[in-house]
Each structure stands twice: as structure tokens, then as C-alpha cells.
Design brief:
The complex is a heterodimer of chains A (399) and B (281).
Chain A lengths: L3 E10 L3 H9 L4 H8 L2 E11 L4 E6 L5 H8 L7 E6 L2 E2 L5 H10 L1 E4 L11 H10 L5 H14 L15 H14 L4 E5 L7 H18 L2 E6 L2 H7 L2 E6 L2 E6 L1 H6 L4 H8 L3 H4 L2 H4 L5 E3 L5 H11 L3 E5 L5 E6 H10 L14 E3 L4 H8 L6 E5 L2 E6 L1 H8 L11
Parallel strand pairs in A: 3-8, 3-9, 6-7, 7-8, 11-12, 14-15
Antiparallel strand pairs in A: 1-2, 1-4, 4-5, 9-10, 12-13, 15-16
Helix pairs in contact in A: 1-2, 5-6, 5-7, 6-7, 14-15, 16-17
Chain B lengths: L1 H7 L3 H15 L1 H24 L2 H15 L5 H15 L3 H31 L1 H16 L6 H8 L3 H25 L3 H9 L4 H34 L8 H10 L3 H27 L2
Classes of the chains: A alpha/beta (399), B mainly alpha (281).
The structure holds adenosine-5'-diphosphate and magnesium ion (MG).
Adenosine-5'-diphosphate binds next to β2 and α3 of chain A.
Chain lengths: 399, 281
């Protein structure tokens, strides 16, 4: 069961939301509605579901409705129409008390500009969520300390937030949300205010945290690179609507429309694509069965000048060139091991493209792709260039 | 009747008088006990303060001044010299009377003003209603409030406090409203997102964040209360103001000046005290 499910979630800001909703149903655009009614469409019929343990990224340009959408999830903003289910319970139908309970137990939030309480110490900030639940003092201090340890701020409990750097402040923000041990973390551009290096660290740490703590994370960003780095799935927003939901690969490989495509154009593909995306099915010989004769035959058939050699378990053993094979054939050498070359370049299946590029560069023989030492594919130089150029003509079987 | 209003003027003055009379009579069950018990309470407070030897009060004030001004000597020294001078000139009792009036008037203003300010900050409707009322309360010449005050409470300390309440409360209300509205939206969201109740949000986030602004309002309120208390000497409120007034009536420049200096010294000390409560932290 999804932990969060949004159905036709819509928010119209302004005095006459009814009229705006009608126009929306008739298919008017956000711009037309603003002109006609003066109301702003914040989120337009957003539907999606998030599975437990998933990092679900909501991405879009500034003003596309990301912040509004994430605030609809914890009802900091009341939806105009539509529903939001958390663990199957409809948030919109809850009274104030029930809503508070859900916020306390299930939803933690991290803010773009940290939103730390400047009059409280780091520890008191991390304690906030527990304090308002009236937990005994020692218990909440203990939990808050644990949360601070988790984000690497164990030694800063007595400082005031403004004594810390931006990255550290956001760690406090994260600890404050984690201290409650919520099921879901809502993160509204949580790393956007940080400088790039710290930002990358925080992204890595978030991924680590998620894999150990198994939280569900809804992460807002306007940066596709960031979305691709951390997202299990990405929802792309434009003018309040979700225009595509998919895994990073799906979004990159099959942009749903021009908008997504233009967004994707900017991305540094080399960081996102891995060996898996561009490898081809390899021609091979089995060194336990085949000799130079078969090797030569297969190379001729496929029109290639070298062939990879594996054993019966498909463990990569090396390669054989056509030249050596025909020489061996002439000399009537039967044992392939005499002409087997082992100086082969190999990469793991999930090696990113930019690394493959430096490995493959200047090498005339194709690069083998392995997974646990077993050969799974081969990369020829042309494929790398093509993929970097964005034409990714990939073997559909491997895409 | 309408024609009458055009030829002879609309009877606003008569109307106001009528209304005041109605209130005086209608609420006398309320005003009488307030006048009596509250008056007694204030005299009691002032009497007790007067029992304390001046030098002890002077030392206490100086010590507080020393600590709130960040362990600097200026304010402490000024307090010692100023208060000693007032005692030396024989105005100690009047000083205590004035101080008691200001203290109680300010406390009441804050007790009434802060909640109203909070209500204003929470509701745009309340704000729209209160703003013109506050403007009116503050721009009406202070003397005018003395008239209904006398009607309700006779003469003495109590009507002085009443007039001061009306005149001095607006800044506290205004600044409380302003301070809470200025609290960063993200902080308010943060407190809500973690499941705070309205009261928790107010007590743990909004009021602490708005504290500096509210204190600035309270500072203004206290200063206005002081000025009103001086004016209230015209309806029999005791204290330094009365000395100025009687000096005026007898054209005694010298005594008027000395009593006036006493008020200035008190004003400076009160102002610095309430301000530094603000600048601390
Ligand atoms: N409180 C509000 N009142 C009116 N319009 C709003 C309000 N909040 C957001 N909007 C509008 O809703 C749209 C989406 O805003 P937002 O969700 O903040 O976008 P994002 O977070 O993607 O930058 C924008 O056009 C914005 O102007
Ligand atoms: Mg935003």
C-alpha cells in the first residue's frame, strides 16, 4: 500500500476558487485563469502515490507549485479540491486534533532556509517536536541527541543556530525532523541554499540515511541533477501540473513532452547514464570449449576484429584478436590459451559514463562490462560518444 | 429634529455627556468598588514602598542598572545621583507616588494590551476594527480622558490610572500585533508542521520571536503612562506632577523646576530600564 497518495489535488489561491476550478475543468491554462479571475493556480490536479521507503522527488522550475504541493501533503495549505491519503487516511477529512497527531507522528519537515528557532540552542531545536508532544525532559533530550549524532552534530548541542554554517544549520533542521522518528520526511528545497560542495555531501548523506533508516522522503528541488542523484522516482511539475512521473532513467530516456525534454537537455548526461545504458550484447567464445578456429569464425560473422573470451560460468577471461587467431589457425594451434590476451579493460555495470569515457579513451579494444566478474555486455567507443551527445541509440534490450 | 441639527449644530457634546452619565450610573456597581478597593490597594503599595529607606531603594536600583546595562557604570551612577537628589530636595514621597502610579498603570496596560495585540495579529478583521480605534485613542489630547475618568471614579489615583490606560495602552497593542505578524512565515510553518497547537505556537515561537518588538511597545507605553500620570495631578493624583501643578498655580518657578527635574530623572531611569530589558539577548 502506498504511504502517501494524492488524488486530483488542487489548490487555487485567491478569492474565487470555484470559478477557477470550473475553468480548470474546462481546460483553461494557469495564465488564462489568472487573467480572467485573478486567482492563481498553485497546484492543478496532481495525482501520485509514494511507496514506503522511496525517495520521491518533485521537480520543477520556480513557481511551478512544488512548495504548494508539499504543503498540501501536511495540510499547511488547505486543498481546494482533491484528497491526500496518508496510510490510507484522508487528511482533508481530519479535524484539527487528528491532523496534529498525524503531523507529530508521521510527517517531518525540512525547510529551504532551515527555519530554525534562533532563540533556542541546537539541542532545543532538535527537541522541538518532542517538546510539544510533552515528552519528559530527559527522554526528549536523549532522542534529540541521538538525532543530532545521526547527522554528525553531536558536539554542537549548546550552540545557537546562528553560530553554525549553513550546512550545519540544515543538519539541525534534519535532526529536528528525525527526532520525532516520522515515517515521511518532507524536504522543500532543503539543500538549495547550500553551496555546491556541501550540497553534494548532504545529498550523499541523505541517501545513506535513507538506506539505513528506511524513511520515505519527499524531496523538492528545482535542480534536475539533484533530482537524478537522489530520486528513486521523479515527478516533474509545470504550471502546477505534474507532467511526468518516472524513474530517472525513464525521464531521461523518454521525456514525456517538449517541456521535460528541454529540462533534460541541460543535464549533464555523463553523470546519469551508466555502463548499463550503453552496453551491447557481447560476442564471446568459451575458452573451455572453443579454439582459435571458432573464434575466427565468429569474428568474421560479426565483422569484428577481436572477441571476448569467457569460461562456462561466463566469467571474463580475456580476449582474442582476429590476427592472432588466424596465425594460430595457420600453425594449427588448438589451445586458445596460447593466444589469449588478458589486458582487457573492464567496468562495472553501474559505472557512470564520465568515468567510462576516461577509461575507454585511447583504447582500441572494446571495454567489457561485468557484474560480479561475470560478463554482461560490451561498450564500443561509438556508443559513448553517441550517448554523451544525447542520441543514446541504445540496444532496446538493455535500455 | 434634522433641521434643528443644521441650525443649532449636532449635539455631539450633549450626546457624549448623556452617554457618560448613563455609564456612570449604569456601571456604578462596578466603578464604586474599583474606586474604593483599587484606590486602597494603590495607597497600600505606595505606603509600603515609602517605608523602605530611600538609600536601600537607591542601592537596589543602582545594582539593577549596573547589571542590565551590561556591567557598565553610567546608568548606575546616574540612578544614584538622580534619586539621591530627589530625596535631598524632599520629593521622595512624591517620587514613590508617581512611581507607583506609573508601575500599576503600565502593568495594567500590558496585561490588557498584549492579549488585544495577539487577537489583532490573528485576525485581519480584528485588526481592521482596532486600528482606527487605537489611532483615535492616541491622538485625542490626553486631558480629555480626565473628564470621564472623574465622572466614573471621582478624584485621586484611580481616575489617573483609568485615563492612563486609555492613553498609554495603544503602543503595546500595536507593537504586539506588529511583532507577531513579522515573525518569519517559515518559522510559523515549522512550528505548525511539527504539530504545535495554537497556544504552543504562540508561546514557543511567536511571542519569543516578537519579544523585542513588543518590548519596544511596552517602553512607549510606560513613557506615555508617566506623562499621563503627571497630567493626572490635575484631577488629584498625587506625586511629582502635583508639585509642578501647585508651583504653577503659585507661580513658584524654583519649586516647579525642581519637581520637573524629578520627573525627568524618573523618566530617564524608567526609559533606560525598559529599553535594556529589550536589548538584552
Ligand atoms: N500564498 C499564496 N498566495 C497566492 N499565490 C501563491 C501563494 N503561494 C504560492 N502562490 C503561487 O502559486 C504558484 C506556485 O508557487 P510555489 O508552490 O511557491 O512554487 P515553487 O515552490 O515551485 O517555486 C506561484 O505562481 C505562486 O505565485
Ligand atoms: Mg518553493
Amino acid at each position: 500500500m502506498p504511504i502517501i497518495e494524492a488524488k486530483n489535488l488542487t489548490k487555487v489561491f485567491g478569492k474565487n476558487p470555484k470559478q477557477a476550478i470550473e475553468l480548470l475543468n474546462q481546460g483553461s491554462s494557469k495564465e488564462e485563469i489568472l487573467k480572467k479571475t485573478g486567482s492563481t493556480v498553485g497546484v492543478n490536479k496532481a495525482s501520485f502515490s509514494v511507496e514506503p521507503g522511496e525517495i520521491f522527488v518533485i521537480m520543477g522550475l520556480s513557481g511551478s507549485g512544488k512548495s504548494t504541493l508539499v504543503r498540501l501533503i501536511n495540510r499547511l495549505i488547505e486543498p481546494t479540491t482533491g484528497s491526500i491519503l496518508i496510510d490510507g487516511q484522508d487528511l482533508a477529512k481530519m479535524d484539527k486534533k487528528e491532523l496534529r497527531q498525524v503531523r507529530r507522528e508521521k510527517l517531518g519537515m525540512v525547510f529551504q532556509r532551515f527555519a530554525l528557532f534562533p532563540n533556542r540552542t541546537v539541542l532545543q531545536n532538535a527537541e522541538y517536536g518532542l517538546e510539544i508532544q510533552k515528552l519528559p525532559k530527559e527522554e526528549r533530550a536523549k532522542k534529540a541527541r541521538e538525532a543530532l549524532e545521526l547527522v554528525g552534530l553531536g558536539g554542537y548541542t549548546d550552540q545557537k543556530p546562528d553560530q553554525l554554517s549553513g550546512g550545519m544549520q540544515q543538519r539541525v533542521g534534519l535532526a529536528r525532523a528525525l527526532a520525532n522518528d516520522p515515517e515521511v520526511l518532507l524536504m522543500d528545497e532543503a539543500f538549495s541554499a547550500l553551496d555546491p560542495l556541501i550540497r553534494k555531501d548532504m545529498q550523499d548523506e541523505l541517501i545513506d540515511l535513507q538506506s539505513t533508516m528506511k524513511k520515505t522522503i519527499i524531496f523538492i528541488t528545482h535542480d534536475l541533477d539533484e533530482a537524478l542523484r537522489i530520486g528513486d522516482r521523479i515527478a516533474l511539475m509545470k504550471d502546477g501540473s505534474i507532467v511526468q512521473i518516472g524513474t530517472p532513467e525513464e525521464i531521461l530516456m523518454n521525456p514525456a513532452n517538449d517541456y521535460v525534454e528541454r529540462f533534460v537537455e541541460d543535464v549533464d548526461r555523463s553523470k546519469v547514464l551508466t555502463a548499463n545504458h550503453i552496453m551491447k550484447r557481447p560476442e564471446t567464445i568459451n575458452i573451455e570449449k572453443h579454439g582459435p578456429r571458432v573464434a575466427l569464425e565468429r569474428m568474421k560473422e560479426a565483422g569484428i576484429s577481436s572477441i571476448l573470451a569467457v569460461d562456462s560460468k561466463r566469467n571474463l577471461k580475456g580476449y582474442v584478436t582476429a590476427e592472432d587467431a588466424s596465425e594460430a589457425k595457420k600453425k594449427d594451434i588448438r589451445d586458445i590459451s596460447e593466444i589469449l590476451l588478458t589486458d582487457i579493460k573492464q567496468v562495472e555495470k553501474d559505472t557512470p559514463m564520465n568515468e567510462i569515457f576516461t577509461i575507454i579513451n585511447g583504447s582500441s579494444i572494446p571495454t567489457a562490462v561485468v557484474e560480479n566478474d561475470r560478463l554482461v555486455g560490451i561498450i564500443v567507443r561509438g556508443a559513448v560518444i553517441a550517448a554523451l551527445a544525447g542520441e543514446s541509440e541504445v540496444d532496446s534490450e538493455y535500455a | 429634529m434634522l433641521k434643528d441639527w443644521f441650525t443649532n449644530g449636532i449635539p455631539i457634546a450633549e450626546g457624549t455627556e448623556w452617554l457618560t452619565d448613563q455609564i456612570t450610573e449604569g456601571f456604578s456597581f462596578l466603578f464604586e468598588p474599583i474606586k474604593e478597593h483599587f484606590g486602597e490597594f494603590m495607597e497600600f503599595t505606595a505606603d509600603k514602598l515609602m517605608l523602605v529607606p530611600p538609600f536601600i531603594i537607591i542601592i537596589i536600583v543602582a545594582l539593577i542598572a549596573f547589571f542590565i546595562s551590561g556591567k557598565k557604570l553610567g546608568l548606575a551612577a546616574f540612578s544614584i545621583v538622580g534619586l539621591w537628589l530627589i530625596d535631598n530636595q524632599g520629593y521622595w514621597e512624591h517620587l514613590i507616588n508617581t512611581f507607583t502610579l506609573v508601575l500599576i498603570a503600565s502593568l495594567l496596560s500590558v496585561i490588557i494590551g498584549v492579549p488585544i495585540g495577539i487577537l489583532m495579529s490573528k485576525s485581519n478583521t480584528v485588526e481592521a476594527i482596532m486600528k482606527p480605534i487605537l489611532d483615535f485613542m492616541q491622538t485625542m489630547p490626553a486631558f480629555v480622558y480626565l473628564i470621564p475618568a472623574v465622572a466614573f471614579f471621582g478624584i485621586g489615583m484611580v481616575p489617573g490610572i483609568f485615563a492612563s490606560l486609555i492613553f498609554a495602552t495603544p503602543p503595546t497593542v500595536r507593537f504586539t500585533n506588529l511583532g507577531i505578524r513579522q515573525v518569519s512565515k517559515e518559522l510559523v510553518e515549522a512550528s505548525e508542521a511539527f504539530g504545535s497547537t495554537g497556544t504552543q505556537k504562540l508561546l514557543k515561537v511567536e511571542l519569543p520571536m516578537a519579544k523585542a518588538t513588543i518590548m519596544a511597545g511596552i517602553n512607549q507605553t510606560v513613557m506615555l503612562a508617566l506623562s499621563m500620570v503627571v497630567i493626572a495631578s490635575m484631577i488629584g493624583a498625587p506625586g511629582l506632577g502635583r508639585e509642578v501643578l501647585s508651583a504653577l498655580q503659585r507661580a513658584q518657578v524654583g519649586t516647579g523646576f525642581v519637581a520637573g527635574i524629578g520627573i525627568v530623572i524618573l523618566a530617564i531611569i524608567i526609559d533606560r530600564f525598559t529599553q535594556s530589558a529589550n536589548s538584552k539577548e
